[in-house]
Amino acid sequence: MSIQTLTTTPFDGQKPGTSGLRKKVTVFQQPHYLENFVQALFDELHGDAPASGHTLVLGGDGRFHNRSAVQTILKMAAARGYSQVLVGQGGILSTPATSAVIRRRGASGGIILSASHNPGGPDGDFGIKYNATNGGPAPEKLTEAVFERTRSLSSYRISDAADIPLDTQGAHQMEGMGIEVIDPVADYAAVQRELFDFDAIRRLFASGFRLRYDAMWAVGGPYAKAIIEGELGAPAGTVVNAEPKEDFGGLHPDPNPVYADDLVAQLMGAGAPDMGAASDGDADRNMILGRGFIVSPSDSLAVLTAHAQRVPGYRRGLAGVARSMPTSTAVDRVARAMGVACFETPTGWKFFGNLLDAGQVTLCGEESYGTGSDHVREKDGLWAVLFWLNLVAVTGQSVEELVRGVWREHGRCMYSRHDYEGIPTERADALMAELRNRLSSLAGQTVAGQHIAWADDFSYTDPVDGSVSQRQGVRVVLEDSSRVVFRLSGTGTEGATLRVYLERHEPDATRHDLPVQQALAPLVQLAGELAGIERHTGMGSPSVMT
Ligand code: G16
Predict the structure, then answer these.
(1) Taking 80 as the threshold, does the pLDDT of residue 470 lie above it?
(2) Between the CA of residue 210 and those of 145, 234, 286, what are the distances in Å?
(3) How far is CA 228 from CA 160, 210, 214, in A?
(4) Residue 456 belongs to what H/E stretch?
(5) Of all helices (H) and strands (E), which one includes residue 386?
(6) Exposed (0-12), middle (13-18) or buried (19+): which is 296, by Cβ within 10 Å?
(7) Closest by Cα among 265, 257, 296, 292 to 520
(8) Which of 61, 88, 515, 524 could potentially form a cystine with 282 if both were Cys, beta carbons 3.0 to 4.6 Å apart?
(9) Residue 284 Cβ < 6 Å to ligand 1
């Protein structure tokens, strides 16, 4: 076996989005495409020096192309002189588990192969992202530098060693680099055991409590099976669609009421279980349901915040909480009442990293079905489910009662996100540009019968390192603090997706059961007129509403 230097031509479009580089599988299958990105990453991380002394964690969500990408990266890491790579058995590691392994094993970083909730299979999507020593997504400075380097790279180094058998745990050597094929669940489960009252949850299941956990044929399955059925004693069959498939069974592994419609139907129907839950492709997102009741991600964060001290891992209280800007202000209201600081960050988990590292924040979450804490540096789907189970077990309240308790005390934030998918990029850009041009003149105007108090393009100054991120989404806020937020998705692979986030606070408990879309109808009209959505996109209604 020997190390080879192969010639490549630069790839111009390797710009990572909100969460790493995501493209169609067919794009990743182009000769040298993955290699170009990995070499650029290694070069930015290590400069001209070999990576000796460094341990890399490697795994993915098991989607199509995962296995072949793992083998390529192992050979490139060996050529780069890494001391060791820890790779999940079968090439599998969920995103939060990768974060846990990096932190527990003191690795210098990790590569995660995933396109998250995007569909998989030969015609689906693939992705790669790098997480740093703290276990969290690489900071923008690094991803930008990697991108710049991919545009000029002309060669990469790779070992011609044979493939490593990934399906059994064990140790191997490649060009002097150690490779350990590890149990993908063990480190992750150890972290959860330190946080939650497993005995209380065991008693809950023993008493007949029924959960339906839909792993959406994705990587969350093995984790949920091992912990929920294996350790916590839930009956076999509690975790469904549990076996990771390369194409997620042809489905869209995104845990929201649209793509997890089967789970929603189960929870709404006769004989529904007490609780429902789902996680996405790489198991960092989650959706929670009660019997006949869907919990919005923003409300979920507010409930976890309100009751955190009932859970062993957070008994000492919360240093602070954080939410992404478009996430509803439900958590702000709870935090204010508790005297806990609440931060508003741009969309993207990486923005929570500094606050978590600095100990300023304990819990954080996003409207896009992501919730997490300082136990790792990623959002964590199964963690959220365990948190809810722990709360149900120790409060004796149902999922619905826990949410309604927060509404009663703080009012309900009526909230919805409308997505307009597959817009030609130039049209979406034109829509945003036009909106931004009008921003300064919007305050004081009445549009669609709504009086606008102020409008801006969200800019964030990181309280820890002072870095500034501009143009993070257009906010239009009314006098009663209702708001509409517009931004373009950073995770799609086909055309552009316009996201419109709508929020109105309802203090009156007699109106909490109004249908959300009805309660938000005036804001929908405002959004449509303000941004000329139909004029720009030709779409009269959103493709997805969550
Ligand atoms: C990624 C980030 C999330 C972020 C989401 C936004 O999620 O990790 O922090 O909220 O993207 O997506 P978009 O830009 O499409 O609105 P994931 O689960 O795809 O990694």
Answers:
(1) yes
(2) 49, 8, 18
(3) 41, 11, 12
(4) strand 450-457
(5) helix 381-395
(6) buried
(7) 296
(8) 61
(9) yes
CA of 405 to the centre of ligand 1 (A): 29
Residue nearest to atom 1 of ligand 1 (CA): 19
pLDDT, residue 494, reads 79
Three-class HEC string of 265-312: HHHHCCCCCCEEEEECCCCCEEEEEECCEEECHHHHHHHHHHHHHHCH
Atom number in ligand 1 closest to CA 137: 8
DSSP conformational letter for 234: P
Q: How far is the CA of 490 from the centre of ligand 1 (A)?
A: 7
Percentage helix, strand, coil, to 5, in the chain? 35, 25, 35
Query: From the DSSP assignment, how many helices (H) and strands (E) are in the chain?
Result: 17, 27
Copy the structure tokens of residue 142: 């690094």
Provide the pLDDT for residue 229.
98
Active site residue 116: yes
- Of 118, 128, 349, 350, the one to substitute when testing ligand 1's pocket (max ligand atoms within 8 A of C-beta) is 349
- Residue keyed to tokens 């002097």: 176
pLDDT value at residue 523: 97
| Cβ of 118 below 6 Å from ligand 1 | no
Report the C-alpha gap between 18 and 477 in whole angstroms.
Answer: 25
Tell me what pLDDT residue 473 has.
97
Q: Give the integer Cα–Cα distance in Å for 290 and 303.
A: 13
Whether the pLDDT of residue 469 is over 80: the answer is yes
Own/partner long-range contacts of 232-235 (Cβ < 8 Å, ≥24 apart): 232/198, 232/201, 232/202, 232/205, 232/389, 233/202, 233/205, 233/206, 234/205, 235/205, 235/210
- Residues with Cβ within 8 Å of residue 464, at least 6 apart in sequence: 354, 355, 357, 358, 360
Q: For residue 397, give the 3-state DSSP assignment.
A: coil
Q: How far apart are CA 103 and CA 424, in angstroms?
A: 41
- Rounded (10°) CA dihedral 111, 113, 115, 120: 180
Q: Tens of pLDDT along 135-152? A: 999 988 899 999 999 999
> 370 CB less than 6 Å from ligand 1?
yes
β strands within 99-142, DSSP E: 109-113, 125-131
